[in-house]
Amino acid sequence: MNNELKILKIMKKEGLNWVEAEKKQKQIKTLKEFI
Fold first, then answer.
1. Each residue of 7-33: pLDDT tens digit?
2. pTM of the model
3. Distance between CA 15 and CA 6 in Å, rounded?
4. What is the reported pLDDT for 1?
């Protein structure tokens, strides 16, 4: 549920569709793992 809210916020910020927002979430998670 919380994860979906984050994706919705990204969608609103950048006007992305679901697929693009989910890709963005995965990229953010991957970046956090590297740091």
1. 778 767 766 567 777 888 888 888 778
2. 0.39
3. 14
4. 56
Return the structure tokens found at 27. 């990229």
Q: How many domains does the chain have?
A: 1
Q: Checking phi first, is residue 15 left (phi over 0); if not, alpha (psi -120 to 50) or beta?
A: left
Q: Which residues contact 24 (CB under 8 A, 6 or more apart)?
A: 7, 10, 14, 16
Q: What is the rounded CA–CA span in Å between residue 8 and residue 25?
A: 10
Range of the domain at 11: 3-34
| Distance from C-alpha of 25 to C-alpha of 19, rounded to nearest angstrom | 10
DSSP designation for 8: H
